[in-house]
Write a structure and sequence with these properties.
By secondary structure, this protein is an alpha/beta fold. 37% of the residues lie in helices and 22% in strands. Strands 10-9-13-14-8-15 form a 6-stranded parallel sheet, with helices on both faces. Helix 9 crosses helix 10 and helix 11 packs across helix 16. The structure holds one DNA strand.
DNA sequence: TATCGTAG
């Protein structure tokens, strides 16, 4: 969900990508522009969080006093919109005397913020429900129709709410969501109290009273949950509770397949570990396979999958799944991930293998526990945690049986890392450019933590493409022979023909039913090495596939998250200026993943920021 | 134009 973004450019103002013309109003006519307060609020919020890029494109709250917007145009549009819905019989108009004004304000604000879908939904509701929302706009947020900041703007502008406890709920929920983004699954009641007191500008005693009311309230809908001095997002609380209960079940259902396996020694030296893993599997529903980077977790998993009939391989990112083989999928794809969580249910398999399990959160854990009678969670607790929420894997490893691999196979001559530090990102960019010239004919991969900015995937990809691939353009900014990654699962007649995370080479364009597609060639296991190896035999997923341009990205530079679990000969790991990202974004875990991807050598290019 | 990932 998107907050309110306000920018000013000369005589125009941009709000969430919509542009409005600014009119100057004389002070003496004592006209208060209806939307000025909400603009001021939006700006204040933005300032509080700090303008990250420092571009200063936000205007000062004080200056909004002399500005107003062309409201007549908005009113006309809203009225037109309303009339249309009335014509379709989707709107009741029997408002009481007091409500039309509130209604008008709310409608205008929704329209003004570019929330047309919400506006339309709102207009289609029964009057009773509409009035409920009008009397407390935070319901828009609590019931997931709007983001927190938009609800706040409506509430401030329309001088609601009339039921303050809902406001406290909304703020509490918002505080929890922010904490979750920072990797916290819960916060203490005290923490919540301090935050609420600050945000609502209330006495702590009073907040304490509100918290008591919240605690006494019935649990319904999206309300924060209080338990044992901690406060949780409801979905985190319930899925966590349920997952912990399932994890406590030790014995697997009677299923002989695992018990009777005799493992031949393959001479690779990992048979002892494989036996250990198999005996754990026979005795326990859930087992953990762990080990540092390059200790052969994936290889062992592939071996186990080849031995135990009806094993489903999965991973937490598309790229990691693709690396496990053709039949592997993301957990999300297997279990029907959608806007309301996982929709699926049960998998028809003996054993589910979940790779890169350090990226699991409670929701994914809960889903896989429901799905399979037996699971191997494979991962390294020292590698990347989930995006949002805390590392569930770190907790599981304390209670579940663990098989640990400790011999490193990836780095034949020991881990080889060369760190190059530069003050500015620009200097890092120059160093990268020199380094790439040297690596041009080698098997290399650039990885970076971010998408945006000078050292993000988007710009680096364009840059590397520009200097390494002189081939003609085939579509948009894609060139013939470009190295690309598929960013979405692609189905043809219900069959998966290309998976998110698959890497290939753009080979041309084709037109089907008037739509233009990029023809992408894939090689077995997806590690496409541009110059050599261009055989396209095998099944469809290893051959040529037509992919929509929007489902492809250049793959010269990938994020560290995507590349976790992958490897190649030479890796360039970029660390941007830490001041340009959120302070604690570049963690030890990320650095560990980043510097352990190169088989021969990893170059770490770091912008120290001076 | 998003900190990172997942889905159709």
């Amino acid at each position: 969900m998107q907050g309110l973004v306000v920018e000013r450019q000369n005589n125009k103002i941009r709000i969430n990508s919509r542009t409005w013309i600014i009119e100057k109003k004389e002070r003496e006519n004592n006209y208060t522009p209806p939307l000025v307060e909400s603009q001021a609020i939006a700006v204040k919020d933005k300032e509080k969080r700090g303008s990250k890029n420092g571009k200063g494109n936000l205007y000062l709250a004080g200056r909004t006093e002399i500005l107003s917007l062309n409201l007549e145009r908005i009113y006309r549009n809203v009225i037109k919109h309303t009339e249309k819905l009335k014509g379709e019989g989707k709107l009741e108009t029997s408002l009481t005397d007091n409500e039309p004004l509130l209604m008008k304000d709310t409608l205008v604000l929704l329209y003004y913020m570019g929330r047309k879908a919400v506006l339309k939904k709102f207009l289609s509701w029964k009057l009773k429900k509409q009035v409920k929302y009008l009397s407390n706009p935070y319901l828009f947020y609590l019931n997931k129709h709007l983001d927190f900041h938009s609800s706040k703007v409506i509430s401030m502008r329309t001088q609601t709410p009339m039921a303050p406890i809902l406001t406290v709920y909304a703020y509490a929920y918002h505080i929890l969501e922010e904490a979750y983004k920072n990797g916290r699954e819960s916060i203490t009641e005290n923490h919540l109290m301090f935050e609420l007191a600050e945000m609502l500008d209330m006495e702590e005693d009073k907040v304490e009273g509100e918290i008591e009311i919240m605690k006494a309230g019935k649990i319904s809908g999206n309300m924060p949950i209080f338990d044992g001095g901690y406060v949780y997002l409801p979905w985190v609380y319930f899925l966590r509770k349920s997952a912990l209960k399932m994890l406590a079940e030790v014995k697997p259902d009677s299923n002989g397949a695992v018990n009777e396996i005799v493992l031949p020694d393959n001479g690779n030296g990992d048979s002892k570990k494989a036996h250990e893993l198999l005996s754990q599997l026979a005795a326990n529903k859930y087992t953990i396979l762990t080990g540092g980077p390059g200790t052969g977790k994936t290889t062992l998993l592939e071996r186990i999958a080849g031995i135990i009939p009806n094993t489903q391989l999965s991973a937490l990112t598309g790229k990691a799944a693709q690396r496990l083989g053709e039949d592997a999928r993301t957990v999300h794809s297997l279990l029907g991930f959608g806007p309301r969580g996982f929709s699926k249910k049960e998998l028809d398999c003996n054993l589910l293998i979940v790779d890169e399990a350090s990226m699991m959160n409670w929701r994914t854990l809960h889903a896989v526990l429901l799905a399979s009678p037996r699971i191997i969670f494979s991962g390294d607790p020292e590698q990347l945690p989930p995006v949002g929420g805390e590392s569930v894997f770190k907790k599981m490893i304390e209670t579940l049986p663990v098989v640990k691999l400790d011999k490193t196979w990836r780095f034949k001559n020991g881990l080889c890392v060369e760190t190059i530090k530069k003050e500015t990102e620009k200097e890092v960019f120059v160093a990268l450019s020199n380094l790439l010239t040297a690596l041009k004919h080698k098997d290399f991969q650039v990885i970076t933590p971010i998408h945006g900015g000078l050292l993000g995937t988007r710009y680096l990809n364009t840059y590397i493409q520009g200097s390494f691939n002189p081939s003609p353009v085939i579509l948009d900014n894609l060139r013939y022979k470009d190295r690309v990654i598929v960013t979405r699962n692609i189905y043809l007649d219900g069959e998966l023909i290309a998976a998110n995370g698959q890497v290939g080479i753009a080979e041309g364009v084709d037109t089907v039913e008037g739509n233009i597609y990029v023809c992408v060639g894939f090689q077995r296991n997806g590690s496409y090495n541009g110059s050599h190896n261009s055989s396209h035999n095998g099944s469809q997923r290893n051959g040529r596939v037509l992919v929509d341009r929007k489902d492809l990205e250049l793959a010269y530079a990938l994020t560290v998250h995507k590349y976790q679990g992958s490897e190649c000969d030479y890796v360039v790991f970029i660390i941007p200026d830490r001041k340009k990202v959120r302070e604690d974004f570049i963690t030890d875990e990320m650095v560990l993943v980043g510097k352990t991807r190169g088989r021969m050598k990893t170059y770490v290019l770091e912008a120290t920021g001076g």
